[in-house]
Structures
1.
Amino acid sequence: MSYLQAFIIAIIEGLTEFLPVSSTGHMILADSLMMIHDKEFAKTFEIVIQLGAILAVLLIYIKRFFVSITIYLKLLVAFLPTGIIGLLAYKTIKHYLFNPFTVSISLILGGVVLILLDKWGNRKVSEYKSVEDISYKNAAKIGFIQCFSMIPGVSRAAATIFGGIFSGFNRQQAAEFSFLLAIPTMFAASGYDLLKEKDNIHLEDIKLLLFGGAVAFIVAIFAVKAFIAFLNKYGFKHFGIYRIILGILFLVYALYTGLEITA
């Protein structure tokens, strides 16, 4: 992987990590289009540079973590289902599902769900004054729904926002809880992947990971704020339409060019 390729992928990560469009899916599609040959390192790169985007959220919402210990406990409850299932299914998911075909289908199906969610969530009145007020039961419910995001193309943000609205949040609160839940989830995913791949990562790889993480961090700071503003004004529908169009276009492109989309 060249630094230019790393730069492009990191920008994609920073822009899409917190949008309901699947950052991992976009990076996998970008890998295929740029024909990156080191597939295993590319997978690790895509997971690890998410730390940069997560640090951006931590910076933006740092005050939230000094309000009370309650938010820590509820985020832990929401994280546990994904942490446990992800640990058990890590190898299978990374080997069989990290491919453009899975991403394209997931983008299309997820886009339909977002369009339906927009109609429902637009009229949703929150049952809570703030995200800290959610019950432990509903926090766990969001966590189980987040497990679907382990399928590339589904989108962790889309799954957790859907789970949040389904559990009583309005769409802005659901997005905020999704941002906060990303912190333990992606720290765990990135840390675990680094641990598993440590023997295959060399000095030049570390430089690429640090470079990619820094780019993702800078881009994500602007992307998070822009997403909240866009969400309040337009809702989820446009993200759903975008996902469907992108998924269809990539499938058509792959069929037309003979691009390998299942590896």
Note: The chain is about 75% helix and 0% strand.
2.
Amino acid sequence: MLFNRSKGVVGLDIGSATVKLVELKERKGGQFTLQRIGVEPLSPEAIVDGSIMDSSLVVDAIQKLNDQTGVKNASYATSVSGHSVIIKKIELPAMEPDELAESIQWEAEQHIPFDINDVRLDYMTLSDDDPGLENMEVLLVAVKREKVNDYVSVISQSGKSPILVDVDAFAIQNAYELNYDLDPLKVVALINMGAGVTNINVVARGQSVFWRDISFGGNQFTEALQREFNLSFDQAELLKRGESVGSYTATDARKVLDAVSAEMANEIQKTFDFFGATSSEGPVDELVCSGGCALTPNLQEVLRERFGVPTELLNPFRQIQYKESDFNRDWLESIAPMLAVSVGLAMRKVGD
């Protein structure tokens, strides 16, 4: 279920701050055309730390998107991240697919820190099909069953069919690979910065080699502005986006935001340090950032200065065609990084 990639699906990214919907149409040659897009804000209390706390608020947001976009396709794909998700790359003796299917649950029990009965488990082999190899690499993903059920349930309650559940980090990678040329000589960190969680996926030699979710995101920026200027959550959100609130301007917010950006850089650095200590790959050569938090003023500049490598915002529509009569180019470009997960999900298909 987690890796399912044929009929197209609607990509639905259920985030802590917003719900994002994208529908694509695949053309010949593996290219895509944008069909529908929608973004609906969520109340802060709806999803906390990646867990759905008020399902009715989430269902209402999904139904609004369904109505606003007029989407007809009932097949939806969504994704999860956070502490309820475990991703492990393990090495096993080479075996046939049937044998692997029989033994994978026992293998998973050795590597997953949850009760195996409490998780949804999926896996895929990464090694080449070389009969001479003694060992094989397997990518193992386990997600707490309760979390999967919660996300599937809100889609069902909105009147749509939840066809597959992916992982945020892999959806981002789908969007990146569609829109950018993979350089096998570069180590690229795909950093998806949401409101509550930041997903880091390090890609080297054309494949993922390291994953980590950190509990740091846009909420930390908003809360810092609330404390500093005694603002409501909504007021702080406006100020974070560069709008003036009362007598406070973007210039007033800059020092506060930069301080939190430095904290974000520290958290990313810890991840890179761990990656460097546990991997034979070289240091990270480039940062590609996505998610609503990535649009925080001056954050990209802070990261660029801290890490000394090229840093850019991911544009998930870079290679996707669309009619400018249907979608305003400036608006689309302004929100593009926050739609990377939903684009990566919308590339998937039913049953593949």
Note: The CA atoms of residues 8 and 349 lie 5 Å apart.
3.
Amino acid sequence: MSVKIEPSWATRLEPEFHKPYFTQLTDFVKSEYQKYVCYPPGKLIFNAFDKCPFDETKVVIIGQDPYHGPNQAHGLCFSVNDGIAFPPSLMNIFKEIKEDLDKPIPVSGNLEKWAEQGVLLLNATLTVRAAQAGSHQKIGWETFTDAVIDVLNREKSNLVFMLWGSYAQNKGKFIDSSKHFVLKAKHPSPLSANFGGWFGQKHFSQANNYLKARGFEEVNW
């Protein structure tokens, strides 16, 4: 099966594209996009990979679902298009960066600038039906993104994994912490962040300190 995805990822993920689950997943997603409004736009389903090639990846942030509101999702977890109001989780991310690194809260919630510096913004599920959170879960995307995490874990070293909330932590439970830096915190959603365990964790400065110590360029968060 031919999948339009950045070449360095295509090379490593090629085996997945020929497995029965991926064929079924592709058929399902095509049908959903024909019948319903779905997000992100079809050409941006693999945007996280296109914006952050495998060879350039140095930080991995794991989200769950794309945003399911109009014009929000564009294929990068937690990120929204320019001009779109910040969802609560993204606002809490920016508040933590402000406290951690003394950086002003940005005008835009578009995180492409992170991706272009080597931050893979990976949702566990890459598509969703409009206004129906979780509607494309358990149809194969999780198997695919598990394979993504697995190839990163095996083939690279000195990655920073940011696992926010129990879902991301469970998805990353097989990451080898002896060769990667695994940071865990509560999810930035107000439902969990406001009760402690998100604010003050300083993941962004910790990530940069780790990268700098190993000769990598720090991320301009």
Note: Residues 69 and 131 are 6 Å apart (CA to CA).
4.
Amino acid sequence: MDRLGFFKHGLSALMDAATTVVGMKKAVESMAEAVDEALSNIKTDMCLHLPSLDAKMYEDAKNTLVELAQMGYTTLEVGGYFGDTIHDQKVAVFNEMVRSAGLKVVAAHLNREFKAEVVEKTEAGESAQCKPLNNDEEVVSEAPKFPAEHQWWTEALDAVKTLGCKSVTMAKVPAFAPQDAKLMAETYAAYFERIADMAQERDMKFCYHPSVTELKADDGESFFDLIAQKCNPEKVFFQIDTFDALEAEVDIFTLLKHYKGRVLSLHLHDRGVVCDSGDIDFDKVVKCGYDCGVQNVIIEQRYFTLPPMNCIERSLQNVTMLSSVRL
């Protein structure tokens, strides 16, 4: 029984006692109905980053989803989109599995690396070919092209929209040399804004999830900071991972406050079971997140100290016990 159910159960027991003592059965029944109505809009939405269970999803997607719902998860952040399939299932089939399990998809991770078309200098000055933007060779670059990426994002965004997604997140920027950071940030800021526009057309928001490397500061400024400065704050939002912030030696509270209103979701992520390591004060992080405009907290598992489903279940139990987690 969740905390909301426990509260209502206890309240019902108290009301039964009151009717016996004062004989006001009708009044108490009316009060119970009023409480039920007042609490009807309060839901315990526990979200799982589904790529945490990639192997289980490949083995038995349908029963894995059912088991997650039985644990108490209610919503999902999906990933692994490849040409009309998601988590190795046709999008329509996956959608039906999710609905049958009593779950909802609210977010998705979609990754598509951007490579600009550039013209390589040769002795003849005539040869042209497509190369990554951060290539070390001397190049003459025109405005970045977008046709291949545009087509992919059109299909991917349309697919996750059918699942009910409210936001999409990209968490993959290719490796780059330190001297190329500003150029890469400028390129990806423009790329993110284009994706954000496409997402907005479908009533979804776009988020960027920085990695450990992208969060680490170099001379007081990180690649994430460069991206944040260059992106339109009304278009591009962020998803911050608690363990990535820890590994990058970033003060997550300062980060959340600095980007207040721009961090839409948190990945609650630990060394193993969430909340077990003691290295992160998750209660304080979630409270700070909510105070700074975070809308969703999402459990993620990358490291397993127990069998995957046991880790996922224990993480859920630990998170639901946090006083800062809203019912």
Note: Confidence is low (pLDDT under 50) at residues 17-29, 31-44, 117-143.
